[in-house]
Structure formats: C-alpha cells, structure tokens
C-alpha cells in the first residue's frame, strides 16, 4: 500500500540535558511518526553546521519546517515505503537551492529529523521492523543479524573518557547485564576509595574524576571489572578528544596503557589534522604482535568523502565513529558507513554529545551490522531507552527465528561476517 506524507510539523522540545531539541511529527494515511533530535553546535570545518539561534531556541528551524520544507515535501507525494533516498536527495537539493539560500542552510537538525521520521513511516508502510527497513535501504548483508557490543562510557578523568565493552558476553542480554553490574561495582569502588563526591556524573552518566591520573583511572576500572567477576570478558575503550596533553605525552600514555590493560578501541587519540601522529600510532600498531595489534583506532571527524579517501591513503586509522548529529540525512550515513566498510574499517555508531530519548541509533547499529555502539552509561533515561531498544530488537529477532549473533571480540569486522557476502559500496547514498 502506497503511503504519502499528509502533514509535517515541528515543535520545540527539551533534550536530555535541558537544551533545545526538535521534534518532527509526520502524518500519513497509516498513522503518525516522530523523531526527536538534539542540537549540536560545532566549530569543526569537516562537519555540517546547524542552526540553533544561540543554542537556546529553534525559531529558524521551526520556520523552515512550516514555511519551506513541509509544503514542498507534501507536494512531491513521495512513496514512504520506497523513496527514502529520494526524500533525502530532495532535502539536500532544497538546502542547496535558492530557496535554501546555501548548502545546508536549512540546518541538519531539520533534515535529519525528517529523514528519521520518514524512515519510521516507511518501515510501517512496508510492514517491516525499523532495523530491517534500514538494512534494506543501506543496503547491508542480513544473514545473520549482528547485535553490537555496547561500549558503556563509565568514567571521565584528566581529559580522557573511558568505556567498558563486554566483548566476552554470549549475547545482547548478557552484555547489557555485564555492563550494568560493572558500572554499579565501579560506583561502589569510587565511593569506598574517594567518598560520595566521586560518584558525581557527567551528562552521559559517567563518573567524573578530573584529577585522577590515567593509570589510576584504569586501575579503578579493572578493579570494578574484577569485582563484578568479568576479568577477561570486558575490554576497555578510550576517547582522548578532550585531552589537553601534548602529543609526546599522549604517545607515552598510550604505550603505557596498552602494555597494562585490555584496550580495544582508541577514539580521537590526536587532534583531527595532526595526521603524522595518527600515522605513527598506526605504524606502531602494524609492527606490534602484542597489545596494539587488534586495537581499533577511530577517527571521529573523518566524515567527508574526500577526507575519508585521504585518511585511507595516509593510513591514519582503521575505524570511524558515526554520530547522527554529524550528518544531514540517513542516506549520507549509509554512504559513509559503506565507504568505511569498503576500506575494511570498523564503524562505531555513537550517541550525540547532546542527546534525547529517541532510540533510533539502536536500530541503526543493528541495520548496518556495525558491531559496536556507544550510548552512555547504563543509567539516565536517554541512555537506557537505547539499551532497552537493543534488548527488544534481540528478542524480536529470536522470536522470528532469524539467525542472530553477538559481535563479541570481532566487533570491528562484524559487517563482513556473512558467508560469501560482499560489502556493498554506495559512495554517495543515492
């Protein structure tokens, strides 16, 4: 049954941290479908910009929806079950037209919010679960479905963000249970060692210890993992994007860490354009037969097609993080993921710095067979709703008798885990 957009409205809402968020409500003959997306201001030249009216309100976005996008989108009569890529292309062309004034003038929050709402409506029209609808649109291999390893961000210290990853879990349910239990053990360890003040948390739910050196922070994590009974089953990840250390200090820290702890992933180990340092770490990784060999080095800002080509040519990383606040449409998310997969890179699906209670990225991670996902600590509503959605998807797939596996220690290469499968390459998304 063909389903068209009959109305499209936008409303200002609150994000998880009290900042502005945009709710898109899309009506069709089959029902009403929504999305809720936060605002992300950015100074990064490689990431699309967004309108937020000084980050306090969304008057420009609301105006764009009501006066520009909605009338034109309804007039086009797109078939929601078939035309997601066409809708995304239409939004991009509109943004770059005289109506939109300049490229992305409409703002990524409107475009991505509409793209997500359209995908939910399209899935319903096609009679498919959202993750399966997205899988077909990407497109990605199906057999088997791969449930992603959750990287729970649990500790912030000295500019470094630490996560725990239950790579030794047998399935999605066990993985989330292991992460939640270890998080509680870490809370107890921090309170016992440093007092109740040490259990204050950041906006992502991780414990904030600004003055704790990196080795002590990792020791606390290792202690919590041991107390929970998961030594050897939980690996660690580090995000150094906020670290203020100079490059030689960072290199010394990374070498020190790798020899002592089970690190599986490094995000943004150096500033985005300091590629000589990235190349140094990757060359070290290539020579090592020990701790560095299987570490994923993730560049979180290598998003543009040409920039990804340059990153590959220089050999600066072997993974990329995808966060929806960095893209204007889902088609560009698919294109970027497929480009990364074609390079044999890992694709790390991540929440945004400013989040909402929308669970969409859980479906996206399963659809793309990304193998790993980061969406905060196992606490706070905006995080828990995504973990609960992963559990729901796991149960749905089991009940449907489809094949499903947990990515485990092979999380970086999960996309290619299909017999005779080929990684689809769709560089431009349309």
UniProtKB/TrEMBL annotation:
Protein name in the entry: phosphopyruvate hydratase
One Gene Ontology biological process: glycolytic process
Cofactor: Mg(2+)
EC number: 4.2.1.11
Keyword presence, Protease: no
Source taxon at top rank: Eukaryota
Associated pathway: Carbohydrate degradation; glycolysis; pyruvate from D-glyceraldehyde 3-phosphate: step 4/5
Xref: Pfam families: Enolase_C (PF00113), Enolase_N (PF03952)
Co-factor: note: Mg(2+) is required for catalysis and for stabilizing the dimer.
Keyword tags: Glycolysis, Lyase, Magnesium, Metal-binding
InterPro entries: Enolase, Enolase-like_C_sf, Enolase-like_N, Enolase_C, Enolase_N
Residues of the Enolase N-terminal domain: 5-134
Residues annotated for Mg(2+) binding in this entry: 267
Gene Ontology molecular functions: magnesium ion binding; phosphopyruvate hydratase activity
Family of the protein in this entry: Belongs to the enolase family.
């Amino acid at each position: 049954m063909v389903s068209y957009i009959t109305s499209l409205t936008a409303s200002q809402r609150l994000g998880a941290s009290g900042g502005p968020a945009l709710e898109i409500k899309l009506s069709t003959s089959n029902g009403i479908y929504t999305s809720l997306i936060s605002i992300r201001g950015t100074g990064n030249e490689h990431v699309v910009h967004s309108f937020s009216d000084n980050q306090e309100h969304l008057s420009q976005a609301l105006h764009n929806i009501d006066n520009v996008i909605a009338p034109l989108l309804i007039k086009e009569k797109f078939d929601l079950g078939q035309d997601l890529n066409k809708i995304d292309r239409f939004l991009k062309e509109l943004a770059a037209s005289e109506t939109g004034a300049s490229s992305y003038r409409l703002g990524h929050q409107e475009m991505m919010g509409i793209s997500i709402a359209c995908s939910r409506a399209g899935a319903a029209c096609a009679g498919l679960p959202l993750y399966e609808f997205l899988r077909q649109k990407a497109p990605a291999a199906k057999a088997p479905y791969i449930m992603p390893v959750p990287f729970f961000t649990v500790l912030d210290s000295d500019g470094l963000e630490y996560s725990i990853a239950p790579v030794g879990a047998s399935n999605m349910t066990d993985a989330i249970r292991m992460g939640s239990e270890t998080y509680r053990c870490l809370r107890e360890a921090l309170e016992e060692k440093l007092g109740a003040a040490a259990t204050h948390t950041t906006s992502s739910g991780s414990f904030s210890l600004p003055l704790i050196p990196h080795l002590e922070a990792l020791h606390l994590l290792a202690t919590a993992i041991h107390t929970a009974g998961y030594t050897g089953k939980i690996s660690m990840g580090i995000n150094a994007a906020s670290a203020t250390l100079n490059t030689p200090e960072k290199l010394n820290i990374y070498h020190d860490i790798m020899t002592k702890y089970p690190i599986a992933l490094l995000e943004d180990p150096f500033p985005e354009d300091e590629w000589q340092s990235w190349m140094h770490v990757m060359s070290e990784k290539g020579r090592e037969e020990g701790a560095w060999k299987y570490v994923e080095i993730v560049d979180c800002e290598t998003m543009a097609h040409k920039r990804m080509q340059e990153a590959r040519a220089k050999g600066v990383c072997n993974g990329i993080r995808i966060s929806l606040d960095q893209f204007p449409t889902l088609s560009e998310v698919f294109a970027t993921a497929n480009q990364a997969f074609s390079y044999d890179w890992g694709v790390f699906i991540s929440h945004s710095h400013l989040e909402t209670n929308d669970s969409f990225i859980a479906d996206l991670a399963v659809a793309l067979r990304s193998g790993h996902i980061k969406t905060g600590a196992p606490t706070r509503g905006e995080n828990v709703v995504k973990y609960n959605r992963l559990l729901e998807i796991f149960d749905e797939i089991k009940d449907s008798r489809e094949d499903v596996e947990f990515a485990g220690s092979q999380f970086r290469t999960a996309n290619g885990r299909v017999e005779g499968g080929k990684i689809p390459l769709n560089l431009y998304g349309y």
